[in-house]
Amino acid sequence: MTITTEILAMIKKYERIIIHRHQRPDPDAIGSQCGLAEILRANFPEKEIYQVGGPVEGLDYLATMDEISDDLYTGALVIVTDTANAPRISDKRYELGAKLIKIDHHPNDDPYGDLLWVNPKASSCSEIIADFAFAEKLTVTENAARLLYGGIVGDTGRFLYPATTSHTLQVAAKLLEYGFDAAKLNRQIDQISLEVAKLSGYLYQNLQIDGNGAGYVILDQTILKKYGIKDSDTAALVPLPGTIETVLAWAVFVEQPEGYYRVRLRSKGPVINELAKRYHGGGHPLASGANAKDQAMCQEIYHEIQALCADYQEK
């Protein structure tokens, strides 16, 4: 029995299915979660299907969340998409369900759940959900295709990142056949506010880069308030240092209202997810996240990035 068949068999056993994703969602988190929900609603109209997890932080053009009571978890199947580590699951009530399925594309460092499908070679969790639907010959609606395509576009950086494979492009092409407005969706994903555009200028002007291509910038609360920006708005800034020819790996440190720093790590070559794990984070080899308690720890992380870049340049 294939993993897709196992997952479908478990789905068929439950009349109520509740789908979660990770905190601070990105297009792939929403795309995979809600794309799966749309597919299940289309194929099992008699079942109760919910998508939960709180605010979608500027991604309401993709989907919004359901608000449900605790009692609905009794006897329910819970599915978590695009979430490597259990502590990152948005809405801790996922533990209240009868069974738990994990579907993800990050390294499987935290193998939670009763049934797992983890494929780190996939470009995105949305690609995995599309593979599931196509493998099991499930009905895919136009909106489900839109959501999954949006997730793939988001996690591949519009097909720029190394995780993009020929299979990724085949899946994306198949999803386009469902007739949603892909040009509109791409504009929505790409759009930034004027405030974020102005902060982009600050980032480029204040980005520090060493001789081996290690870069960093700190966005503290003073800067965020000056530009009228909140943490969720800074996601659009993270890829920007990578557009600079001499930058090899970088960190964007964003101060949170509580005083600690959210660390977004990206790389064009040096593997950074092991570094992220040492600072209460994790992720992909070239795209990870972590946390730093203060600016001293931010500098500590940057020194490690410098060492990684220096080693990489010597090879």
SSE blueprint and pairings:
Elements: H1 3-13, E1 16-20, H2 27-43, E2 48-51, E3 77-81, E4 99-104, E5 115-118, H3 125-135, H4 142-155, H5 166-176, H6 182-190, H7 194-206, E6 208-209, E7 214-219, H8 221-226, E8 249-255, E9 261-267, H9 273-277, E10 282-283, E11 287-292, H10 295-314
Parallel strand pairs: 1-2, 1-3, 3-4, 4-5, 7-8
Antiparallel strand pairs: 6-7, 8-9, 9-11, 10-11
Helix pairs in contact: 2-3, 2-4, 3-4, 4-5, 4-6
Describe the structure.
The chain is of the alpha/beta class. 37% of the residues lie in helices and 17% in strands. The chain is built from ten helices and eleven strands. The strands form two sheets. It has a six-stranded mixed beta sheet. The radius of gyration is 20 Å and the shape is globular. It starts with a helix and ends with a helix. 42% of the residues are buried. The model has no long low-confidence stretch (mean pLDDT 96). InterPro entries: DDH_dom, DHH_sf, DHHA1_dom, Oligoribo/pAp-PDE_c-di-AMP_PDE. This is Bifunctional oligoribonuclease/PAP phosphatase NrnA. Residues 16-152 form the DDH domain. Residues 228-310 form the DHHA1 domain.
